[in-house]
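Weekly sync, protein design subgroup
Attendees: M.S., D.O., the rotation student, P.L. (late)

Item 1: inverse folding check
M.S. brought a backbone from last month's batch and wanted to see whether the design step gives back something sensible before we order anything. D.O. pointed out we never logged the input encoding, so this time it goes straight into the notes. C-alpha cells as presented (306 positions):
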C-alpha cells in the first residue's frame, strides 16, 4: 500500500503538537513522518526548553515510526522556516501532506488526501488539496462532495513536488503578476485588491503569500471538500500572526465516503467564488471596501512603475 509522507512543522508549542499528533495516530493508512523544528530565538531560554519538549512529544508518538527530523540551529522565523521546511520535504518525496503543529484532522482525512494525491497527480491544472474549508456552508451552492476552487486554504493541505517548485518566484511585483494571471476575474476586484495589499505588507512576514501568488500565477486550482476536515487550534499569544480566534466552520465528525463514491465537480464557479472571497475575508462592509479602493487608487502609480 502506498505510504503517505507527512511534514509536520513546529516551534516551541509542545502542547499543541501533542494534540495534533494524537489526532494523526488514528490513521488507517501507512505514513512516514517528517518533522521540521525551527530553532530558538536569540537568548530565549524558554524556547530551548519548549523545543526539547517538542522533541519528547515526537519521540512519544512517533519514535517507533522512524521519523525523519530536521532541527534548525537558529530561529529562521515563520516565513523562512516554512518555505525551507517544505522545500526540504519535497527534496525527499514526490508528494505529501503538510501540517503545522496546531492543526487537528478528521480521522479519515489522511486516507482521502492520499487517494486524491494519487488520482490527480497527472492533472497539472490542480496545484493543491485543502483539507480545511472555511467557506460557509450556506455559500456552497452545489451538492458535490469534492469541487475545484481558486482559493487555497493552508491549514492542512497536500501537494506534489512538481507543483511546489512553482513557489520559487517569491512575492516580488505582485501587481503585475496578479494582473497578468487575471485574478480579478476569478475572485472579483475587491478580492484582487485585498490580496494585493496582503502581498505588499503582511506576506513579508508569513509564508502563505508565496504559495497564493505563485499558484495563482501558474493558474493552479485547488481541490476542496464540501465538509471541513481540518481545524486550527493555535490561536494564542504564541502564534505568529493568528493570535486571535477567528470563526471556523466546525470540523466534520461524520464518516467519509471513499473517493470513488464521492460526487466530484471538476470545475470552478466564478460568481460563487467572488461571493465566497467577500465572506471568508470579511470584505462585505461597504466602508471597508471603500478603504481598499482608496488605498488602491493612492498606490496605483507605484504599482505600475514597479
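Designed sequence read out in the meeting:
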Amino acid at each position: 500500500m502506498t505510504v503517505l509522507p507527512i511534514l509536520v512543522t513546529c516551534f516551541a508549542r509542545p502542547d499543541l503538537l501533542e494534540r495534533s499528533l494524537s489526532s494523526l495516530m488514528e490513521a488507517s493508512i501507512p505514513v512516514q513522518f517528517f518533522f521540521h523544528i525551527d530553532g530558538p530565538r536569540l537568548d530565549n531560554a524558554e524556547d530551548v526548553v519548549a523545543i526539547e519538549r517538542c522533541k519528547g512529544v515526537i519521540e512519544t508518538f512517533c519514535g517507533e515510526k522512524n521519523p525523519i527530523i530536521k532541527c534548525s540551529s537558529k530561529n529562521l522565523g515563520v516565513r523562512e522556516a516554512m518555505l525551507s521546511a517544505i522545500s526540504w520535504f519535497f527534496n525527499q518525496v514526490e508528494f505529501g501532506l503538510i501540517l503545522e503543529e496546531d492543526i487537528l484532522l478528521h480521522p479519515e482525512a489522511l486516507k482521502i488526501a492520499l487517494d486524491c494525491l494519487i488520482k490527480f497527480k497527472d492533472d497539472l491544472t490542480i496545484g493543491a488539496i485543502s483539507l480545511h474549508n472555511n467557506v460557509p456552508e450556506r455559500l456552497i451552492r452545489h451538492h458535490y462532495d469534492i469541487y475545484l476552487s481558486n482559493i487555497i486554504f493552508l491549514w492542512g493541505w497536500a501537494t506534489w513536488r512538481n507543483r511546489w517548485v512553482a513557489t520559487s518566484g517569491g512575492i516580488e511585483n505582485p501587481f503585475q503578476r496578479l494582473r497578468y494571471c487575471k485574478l480579478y476575474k476569478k475572485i472579483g476586484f475587491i478580492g484582487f485588491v485585498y490580496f494585493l495589499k496582503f502581498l505588499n505588507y503582511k506576506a513579508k512576514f508569513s509564508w502563505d503569500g508565496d504559495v497564493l501568488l505563485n499558484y495563482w500565477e501558474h493558474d493552479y486550482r485547488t481541490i476542496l471538500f464540501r465538509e471541513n476536515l481540518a481545524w486550527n487550534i493555535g490561536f494564542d499569544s504564541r502564534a505568529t500572526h493568528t493570535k486571535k480566534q477567528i470563526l471556523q466552520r466546525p470540523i466534520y465528525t461524520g464518516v467519509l465516503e471513499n473517493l470513488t463514491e464521492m460526487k466530484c465537480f471538476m470545475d470552478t464557479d466564478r460568481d460563487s467564488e467572488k461571493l465566497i472571497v467577500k465572506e471568508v475575508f470579511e470584505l462585505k462592509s461597504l466602508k471597508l471596501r471603500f478603504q481598499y479602493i482608496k488605498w488602491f487608487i493612492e498606490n496605483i502609480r507605484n504599482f505600475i512603475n514597479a
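Discussion: The first strand starts at residue 4 and ends at 10. The chain has a mean pLDDT of 88.
Action: P.L. to compare against the previous round before Friday.
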